[in-house]
Amino acid sequence: MRIVVIGGTRFMGPEVVRRLRADGHDVTVFHRGETLGDLPPEVRHITGDRHRLADAASAFRRVAPEVVLDMIPFTEEDARGLMAAFTGLARRVVAISSQDVYRAFGRVNRFEPGPPDPRVLTEDAPLRERLYPHRGETPRAEGDPLRWRDDYDKILVERVVMGEADLPGTILRLPAVYGPLDYQHRTFEYLRRMDDNRPAILLDAGLARWRWSRGYVEDVAHAITLAVTREQATGRVYNVAEPSALSMTEWIRAIGQAAGWHGEIVVARNDHLPTHLIADIETEQPIITASARIRQELGYVELVPREEAFARTVAWERANPPADSDPAAFDYAAEDAALARLRRGDAV
Fold it and tell me: Which residues contact 121 (CB under 8 A, 6 or more apart)?
């Protein structure tokens, strides 16, 4: 199969491309040329601006893709450009979306009001009622590198991709993805404390029980390749997530087991914690997505055991810590003082 991947050089992208090549597909990656990624030598490259896909029209025609995978459609404009570039050329499109389309996600981030949504979110669960979750009252300046966030909304991406009869779409709503190359460093704030030999990690009581569906990068890449290569995925929307959503306490313990840390997790009310440890989300709203549909229809299963996934993640994180971590997020003096009060029973 001839496949064009939009993006594909960061985090999940290289893993997806390697899997597609290993299955014998002809893969061309369209990217800016700033990051090449660890891609197989047989992969073709087209460089350009994803906001100007029409500029690469002749190159796309030479490839004549059957399927297009867009790893980075963030805005309605991105999606319209994608569909315009490949309608009449490709047979179908697969677009990467997110859990953040769900109304529950808006409520966990206090973006929209209302009581917690049902605990398990299927693909038919209510979507956010407010658009543009990162848009503030004052628009970002045109030169601001984060200007695109004002227009970010995967709900609008999904509407465009699924609304073109001449170019059928598939949507994958991804979880919180962790593993090697994770530029968000989702394990770092806890792993650093473990590697700094902290005897205890303080945890907000609400956050301790909060659950969030996650996925290991290699497993998520496997789900994406299934959606790209299976015709029965046409016209479908799929959640991707591990079968069980770990609580934050379970997440930290799993990191600790992989890291060889034998410390204690101390749970406390937020009024007993330093400011930097108080959860800034609505912890009564879990984000638990059901992934039964992709398992039943496409035969998706995880390929990497969870313990191995954490071991690989910890090894990569140790070798690649973020260069710009905030010192205020690791105020050990304040944490030690809070721990001392809790152990004395002063904070009751």
Answer: 99, 102, 104, 239, 287, 288, 289, 290
Counting Cβ atoms within 10 Å, is residue 78 exposed (0-12), middle (13-18) or buried (19+)? buried
CA 41, CA 2: separation in Å to the nearest integer?
16
Domain residue ranges of the chain, discontinuous segments joined by +: 2-344
Find out whether 346 and 339 touch, Cβ atoms under 8 Å: no
pLDDT in tens, 279-332: 999 999 999 999 999 999 999 999 999 999 999 999 999 999 999 889 999 999
Architecture of domain 2-344: 3-Layer(aba) Sandwich (3.40)
Prediction pTM value: 0.96
pLDDT one-digit tens code per residue, 12-63: 999 999 999 999 999 999 999 887 778 999 999 999 999 999 999 999 999 9
Q: For tokens 């809790």, name the residue.
A: 342
- Sign, Cα dihedral of 6, 8, 11, 17: positive
